[in-house]
Amino acid sequence: MADAPSPAATAPAQPERQAAGTGTRGLAGTQAAATASLTEGQRADLIQQWAGEINATLARRSLRTRGSGTVVIDVTLLRSGALDGARIQQSSGNPTVDQAALAMVQRGDFPAAPRRLEVARHRFRLPIDVR
């Protein structure tokens, strides 16, 4: 039996890009102002905060499987915290560990993005250590 995973805090993955010309035009006044007022550093800090909350959520989940290793999973979350997609980005070398980690992520129930972070969705690369 493996212990609960201990996902490492990682630098956020590259954000999904908006199509050219979409900008903040369609956002209501205060929402557009909040987005425009964030510096790149503030935005990165908010994404890192969200990633920390996601890692904490995963660390609380139990993962029971035979074997050990580190599997890297690409997870795309909507602003609400709803799971938009998950796939194995890098295998641990053990298919049982890989599938158990992927199933754990697919259970969903992730925290929403910080209120000031105006994104539709974001992709995270999450290494999950199974011991």
From TrEMBL:
It is a single-pass membrane protein. One of its GO terms (biological process) is transmembrane transport. It is found in: Membrane. Its main location: membrane. GO terms for cellular component: membrane. Signal peptide: none annotated. It holds the Pfam family TonB_C. Residues 43-131 form the TonB C-terminal domain. Keywords: Membrane, Transmembrane, Transmembrane helix. It comes from the Bacteria. SUPFAM superfamilies: TolA/TonB C-terminal domain. NCBIfam families: tonB_Cterm. This is Energy transducer TonB. It comes from Pontivivens ytuae.
